[in-house]
């Protein structure tokens, strides 16, 4: 841990006894992520909020960035699979003959999706932009709500749909659900903000273990 910004650009203090625990060949397992790449930058940064107006305000700053992607296995098994089962149950209700039973079942499934949303709230990343996972849950909720309206219309009309009509309506819901999630998949990456990793620094250069030209020249002399 580097001490707070109270040292000049030519001096910085590490305190391994306070927060850093150095080990050899240390590794940090990331069970939820795949590491795609890493980068390091060093430069000078200026801090205007220092209390001492006479103190040095420019300090050397290191920026380490790690590019990762989320491992989808947990979400496929714990979220997408149960949600797929719920949607299949919803579409199968069209093949139930009694209209009142259809309405009762779809109302129960709507409450199930609502409760399922609360159950997985902690598993969904809390981000300022929409994610594919969050949108697919909303699409599922809207699909079941529209199906509830269809069953209400059928019940109010006092004339049940024929088996052929139920097949076509169910097929229409399946196609609409697939198209909506296809559009969601295409736009998922567009909602992610641009990466702003790293400080706004002066004379930024990549961290390297290779000696600089000045060091090479002094070594040759």
TrEMBL record:
Membrane-spanning parts: 74-96, 103-120, 132-155, 167-185
UniProt KW Zinc keyword: no
Record keywords: Membrane, Transmembrane, Transmembrane helix
Cited InterPro entries: Neuro-gated_channel_TM_sf, Neuro_actylchol_rec
Gene Ontology BP terms: monoatomic ion transport
GO terms under cellular component: membrane
Compositionally biased spans, kind Polar residues: 201-211
Statement: the UniProt record of this protein carries the keyword Transmembrane: yes
Region Disordered: start-end pairs: 201-221
Protein name: Neurotransmitter-gated ion-channel transmembrane domain-containing protein
Protein species of origin: uncultured organism
